[in-house]
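Q: Sequence in, structure out?
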Amino acid sequence: MFTQFLGNYLLQKGIVNQEQLFDAMSKLSQTHIKLGTIAISSGMMTANEVDECLYVQTRENKRFGEIAVNRGYLDDNQVKDLLSQQTPDYVLLGQILVDDGIITYEELERLIFDYKNDSELYDLSLDIENQEAVQTIINKFFDLSDLKMTPENAMYLELMFNSLIRFIGEDFTPLTPMVIDEFPITFGVSQAIVGDNEFITHIDCDREAAIAFASRYAKEDFTEFNEYTVAALEDFLNLHNGLYIVNVSNNTSADVYLEPPVVTEDGVLWGSDKCIVFPVAYPFGTIHLIICF
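A: Exactly. Output:
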């Protein structure tokens, strides 16, 4: 999940554009992390030291770790430790941007430092199982909308991003959230969560994005907008909200339940108080996740 939020950070800072970001994210599964990148992320080597070792490697037929040890930047135990580390994908994303010539190792070093500090993530070994770190970055992201976070909101948002990764694909970037009084609907599916903690959730997108989203979810190659597309979006939202209901029941004493999904087209979505909009950019288009309280 840290990779997706790093993407948002990169876009906000103007370091990459969406095309560059999605191209880099598409290479994650085919790219192996380099020892120099791990060393920078772990704080064991500087970017200048890594660049020096890489330059030497172009002149000598030696491994990076061997050169780093010979030059006194690492010892043998540190090399073994680095090679055994489970490096988070967001570091690998940074390496791909270096390989693509978009940033340098020096810029990557500064980027990792700034990203962790801005997000208040100081653990150098972040991974998807680090629940405390996930909650921290979710809260920081929610703060962008100037909307007060509740534990239920945080749980819902965390589950939604996990659902997107699990059922649609990890190649997305959450864009900056917005708080609005109303939202003009293109096409989408809404579902009310009622009981002790009531709100309406809505997924809105254009029809081409809906076809692509539904195709990924259903693992079918839909080519036109029809009832199957609509059913896939309804099923995704219902499944996700069902997971949320289960988590609420297990973690709190709140009594909540779901109403059936409703298709919405060409209108305006209103909240009883405020609506918060989370644009989620995929290569096939932008999906708007909307929660109205």
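The first helix runs from residue 2 to 12.
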